[in-house]
Amino acid sequence: MDANKIVSALADVTAEQDPTLKSAKLASLCSALWAERGVELVVVGGSAIEILTEGAYASGDLDMCHATKSTLTVAERKEIMGLLGAKGGPRNWQVAGMYLDLLGPVESFAHTPYRRVEAPYGSILLMKPEDLLVERVLVSFYLGESETARDCAKVLAAVALRKEIEMNWDEVRRVANRPEYRNLPQCVQLVKEVADELKIESPLHPD
Amino acid sequence: MNSKLKVPCIPIEGSISWADWLKGRRARRESSKLVAPGVIRRQSSSSDRRLKKLFHGQRGLPFTPTEEL
Which residues, 6 or more positions from B15, have their beta carbon under 8 angstroms from its beta carbon? Predict the structure, then answer.
């Protein structure tokens, strides 16, 4: 990406006041710049859920991981993020009026692809909703009964049940049965609850 | 024809264009709000200090109202 385009993209992201657009555009810009050095980034956690659902959940930080085995050296990160006028580093930056956290290698159990949005400065990869749903259900049931995590799982289920994102429900079932989670009954329960609210048949129903 | 059929889906295979992702924003928000109304952003986290400093006491920018999506 040439210098003029970076300046123009950075100005666009900085001026953006819609938090979801801002997050998506920053992910797009960073993904493009890192990809030029051979590293593929993935948006994860609440940031990914927000881009997938518009659930009004995410805060002002963007969480990303690297999907490629290797990542950039500290010097390379400094160079790239310096192009964006970022402060901080080497894993957390304040950039374009928000925060970017680079969390390390991505962890995914689903066999589906990362979802892909062709954003203005390059493709954004998003964590697989199958992983996100099972993980949020785990958090909502086991770690202090988090109402926020439960709401987050519900919005993901709702958008998938209404087919606004394509979900592989067999993969949800398989991931939820893995030893890392073992929470299929809770996933079935939550998806049924949402399906009942929406008057849609649950694809995870035991029948 | 059912207007729901016109909402672009974020697919498993391939990708969704930016224009289609933008077009689907309102429908996704409406679906979300059927089961979890209002803003469901966490009230606190370990990032509070830096977030509240940057966003004037809030944890992020305000969400765009559904009708403006």
Answer: A116, A117, A118, A123
